[in-house]
Specification:
Number of strands: 4
Strand order of the largest sheet: 1-2
Radius of gyration: 31 Å
Structural class: mainly alpha
Number of domains: 2
Shape: elongated
Oligomer: single chain
Number of helices: 31
Strand content: under 5%
Largest sheet: 2 strands, antiparallel
Distance between the termini: 48 Å
C-alpha cells in the first residue's frame, strides 16, 4: 500500500475545505449569528442609558471579540478551545444581571465600567475552575444532556417567532408580509434541502436569507440607509470607556452567571459532538470552558461581554451537515472584519427580522431534534428518568412562555428564573443528582407489581443465580439454562441491557441446549395450553390470536400442521403468536416454514423464541410500571 493510500483521512471536524467553500460556509454562519450577536448590546445600551454612538461602538466591539472568541474555541491552542465547529457569542443569560449591575452603579458609562470589572474577574474564575467542572462529567448522562439540548432548542423557538412578527422593537403579528417573508424563507430552505444534494444543500440557509432579503428589498421592506451613514473603518481599543471598576457584589453575580453559562456550554458541546459524530469527554468540556473564560476576560478588556457557545449555529451545523471546525474559524475572521468595518456590518444589519425568523425556525428546531435523538438512548422504563426530563422541560417552558414569572422570586433568584434554558438545565442536573447520585438508588422496576412488591434493577444485580433464575425463568419455556447463562452477564446498566443479556445467552447457547429448549415449547392450539397445563405465559401468548378458543375443525387443522412439522424437524412449531396476530397468519407461517431446511428452521425457531421472550419480558416490566405503561400506550408506544 502506498504512503498516500495509507495516510489516514482526517475526521470531518478537522478537514480543511477549499477556500471558496470555507468563505461561503463561514459567511452563512455569520448571517445566522448576527442578529443574536447584536441584540445583547442593544438591550443593555437602552436599559442603562447609553448614547447611539456608544451603542455603535459596543456592536463593533462585540463582533470583533466574537470573532476572536470563535477562533479560540474552534481552532484551539494549548489546552484551550474544544476544537469543534462551535461559534462563540455573548450569552443571553448575562443580560438581566448586567443591566442590574449597570443601573446599581448609576447607569451610563459609569455602570458600564462596573460591568466590565465583573466580566473580567468572572472570566478569569471560569478559566481557573474549568478543570474541576470537567470532572463533573459523570453528572451529565444522556438524560441530562438530552434534556438540556432539547430545552435549548425549544426555548430558542420563541426568539425565532419574535423575529417572524417583526422583532422586539416593533412586533406586528397581524402583518401578512412578515408571515410571508418568514414562511417564504423557510420554504426556500426546505425546497433546496429536498431537491439538491452536495454544495447547494449545505448553503440552503444562506440562499434562503439572500433571496428573502432580496424580495423584501424589492417590495420596500428591507432598508440599508445605515450603510451610507456608517464609517468605513472603526476599531475597538482596550478600555475604551475607561478603566474597569470592581464591585464584590457585581463580581459574585457575574461568577454565578458564568457557572450557569458553563451548563449551557456543556449542553452545546455535547449537542455538537452528537451532530459531528465525535465523542465528547471530560477534557473536551474543560477546554471549551477555558475558552469561554479566556474569551470573557478578553471581552471585558475590549468593551464586550461574557461569551458562550451559540446554539443558533449548533442548529446550522445540524441542518447543513458541514462539520469542519475551520468553517467556524473562517466565520470568526469575517466577524473580525465586520467589527472593523461598520459599513459591512450595516449591510448585514439590513436583513429584515421576518427573514431571519424564517431561517431561525429551521435552525432552532434542529437543535431540539438533536436533544430528542440523545434522549432516545435513555431508559424510560426507569420512572426516575421520566421525572427528570418531564420536570426540567416543563420548568423551562414555564419561564419561556411566561418570562414575567421571574418577578415573583427574589432578585438573586431572577438570574435563574430569567431564562428557560438556565432554569431547565439546572433542574435537569439537580434532579439527576437527587435521583441517581444521592442515596442507594433503586433503579428501574423490572418485575413484580407495585402492590405485591417490585424487583428493581439494583436488586437484580445483587441476586444470587438461583434468585435470578426464579425471577426470570418464565421468559422461556422449560429448561432455565439460558436464564442462568444470562446471569453471568451482570451487572446490567439498564433495562435494555438486561433484556439484551437474555437474547445473547439464547443465541450463544450450545446447539444441544437450544434443541432441548425448543422441545419444551407446546404445540400451537393444543389442549394443554387451553387447559392451562403449560402455564399462564403460554396461555397469554396463544390467546392473542384466539388459539386457546379454537373450534373443533380449527383444532384439527393446527394438530395436523404440528404433526407434519414434528415429523420433518423433530421439534414443535414455534411461532410468536403475538406478532402473527391472527390464526390464519399463524397457519400460513407454519405451512411456509415446512419447506425450510433443518438448519434454517433451527435458526428460525431461535428467532421466534427470542420474540416470545421479548414479549414476556415486556409483560414483567409493564406489570412493575403500570403508570409508565399506561402513559406509553396512550401515546401509541409499547414496551416491546
Amino acid at each position: 500500500m502506498s504512503g498516500t493510500a495509507a495516510k489516514r483521512r482526517p475526521h470531518p471536524v478537522d478537514e480543511v475545505l477549499p477556500a471558496g467553500r470555507l468563505a461561503v460556509y463561514g459567511f452563512q454562519h455569520v448571517l445566522a449569528f448576527y442578529a443574536g450577536a447584536v441584540i445583547v448590546p442593544i438591550l443593555l445600551a437602552g436599559a442603562i442609558g447609553l448614547s447611539d454612538r456608544e451603542l455603535i461602538h459596543l456592536i463593533n466591539a462585540d463582533l470583533f471579540t466574537c470573532g476572536i472568541a470563535s477562533i479560540i474555541q474552534a481552532a484551539g491552542f494549548w489546552k484551550v478551545g474544544v476544537r469543534l465547529p462551535l461559534l462563540q457569542g455573548v450569552t443571553f443569560t448575562a443580560v438581566s444581571p448586567m443591566i442590574a449591575i449597570g443601573l446599581a452603579a448609576g447607569g451610563g458609562t459609569d455602570g458600564l465600567l462596573v460591568i466590565y470589572g465583573a466580566v473580567i474577574v468572572a472570566g478569569l474564575v471560569t478559566f481557573l475552575v474549568a478543570p474541576f467542572f470537567g470532572r463533573l462529567i459523570r453528572f451529565f448522562p444522556p438524560v441530562v444532556t438530552g434534556s438540556v439540548i432539547l430545552i435549548i432548542g425549544l426555548a430558542l423557538l420563541p426568539v425565532a417567532a419574535l423575529d417572524v412578527v417583526g422583532g422586539g422593537s416593533d412586533p406586528q403579528p397581524g402583518n401578512p408580509r412578515h408571515l410571508a417573508y418568514a414562511l417564504g424563507t423557510l420554504a426556500v430552505i426546505v425546497v433546496i434541502q429536498r431537491l439538491f444534494r452536495g454544495f447547494m444543500a449545505t448553503v440552503a440557509v444562506l440562499v434562503g436569507l439572500v433571496l428573502g432579503t432580496g424580495v423584501a428589498w424589492l417590495l420596500g421592506d428591507a432598508h440599508f440607509d445605515q450603510v451610507g451613514e456608517s464609517a468605513w473603518f472603526g476599531v475597538t481599543t482596550p478600555f475604551h470607556f475607561g478603566w474597569p471598576q470592581f464591585s464584590v457584589a457585581a463580581i459574585v453575580s457575574m461568577i454565578v452567571v458564568m457557572l450557569i453559562t458553563a451548563v449551557e456550554t456543556t449542553g452545546d458541546v455535547f449537542a455538537t459532538g452528537e451532530i459531528v459524530d465525535k465523542r465528547v469527554g471530560r477534557e473536551d468540556v474543560t477546554r471549551a470552558l477555558r475558552a469561554d473564560g479566556l474569551s470573557t476576560t478578553i471581552g471585558g478588556v475590549l468593551n464586550s461581554f461574557p461569551y458562550t457557545c451559540f446554539a443558533e449555529n449548533v442548529g446550522l451545523v445540524r441542518l447543513t451537515q458541514v462539520k469542519s471546525r475551520w468553517v467556524v474559524v473562517a466565520a470568526g475572521g469575517f466577524m473580525i472584519v465586520l467589527g472593523l468595518l461598520p459599513k459591512a456590518g450595516a449591510i448585514v444589519a439590513g436583513i429584515p427580522h421576518p427573514v431571519l425568523g424564517g431561517a431561525a425556525l429551521a435552525m432552532f428546531a434542529t437543535v431540539a431534534v438533536v436533544g430528542i435523538q440523545t434522549l432516545s438512548r435513555v431508559d424510560f422504563h426507569d420512572h426516575r428518568n421520566v421525572v427528570i426530563v418531564g420536570s426540567s422541560v416543563g420548568l423551562a417552558m414555564l419561564v419561556t412562555a411566561q418570562p414575567d414569572v421571574a418577578t415573583a422570586v427574589p432578585g438573586w433568584a431572577q438570574i435563574v428564573f430569567g431564562s428557560g434554558i438556565t432554569l431547565g438545565s439546572i433542574a435537569a442536573i439537580g434532579l439527576n443528582v437527587v435521583f441517581h447520585h444521592i442515596g442507594g438508588g433503586r433503579g428501574p422496576a423490572v418485575a413484580g407489581t407495585p402492590g405485591a412488591g417490585t424487583v428493581r434493577l439494583e436488586q437484580v444485580n445483587r441476586m444470587t443465580r438461583e434468585e435470578f433464575v426464579a425471577t426470570f425463568g418464565r421468559l422461556f419455556q422449560g429448561p432455565t439454562d439460558v436464564v442462568a447463562r444470562a446471569y453471568d452477564r451482570r451487572p446490567f446498566a439498564d433495562t435494555a441491557n438486561l433484556r439484551a443479556a437474555f437474547q445473547e445467552a439464547l443465541f450463544a447457547a450450545p446447539a444441544d441446549a437450544q434443541r432441548a429448549l425448543m422441545s419444551a415449547y407446546p404445540d400451537l392450539g393444543g389442549d394443554r395450553v387451553a387447559d392451562g397445563d403449560e402455564g399462564e405465559d403460554s396461555a397469554r401468548d396463544q390467546s392473542c390470536a384466539g388459539l386457546t378458543r379454537l373450534a373443533d375443525d380449527d383444532r384439527e387443522e393446527f394438530a395436523a400442521l404440528a404433526a407434519a412439522y414434528r415429523e420433518r424437524f423433530g421439534i414443535p412449531l414455534i411461532v410468536c403468536v403475538r406478532e402473527a396476530a391472527t390464526r390464519d397468519r399463524v397457519l400460513a407461517e407454519g405451512q411456509r416454514r415446512l419447506s425450510n431446511s433443518p438448519a434454517q428452521e433451527h435458526a428460525a425457531a431461535l428467532i421466534e423464541i427470542a420474540k416470545v421472550a421479548n414479549h414476556r419480558f415486556a409483560d414483567l416490566v409493564a406489570g412493575a410500571n403500570p403508570i409508565a405503561t399506561a402513559r406509553a400506550r396512550a401515546f401509541g408506544r409499547g414496551y416491546t
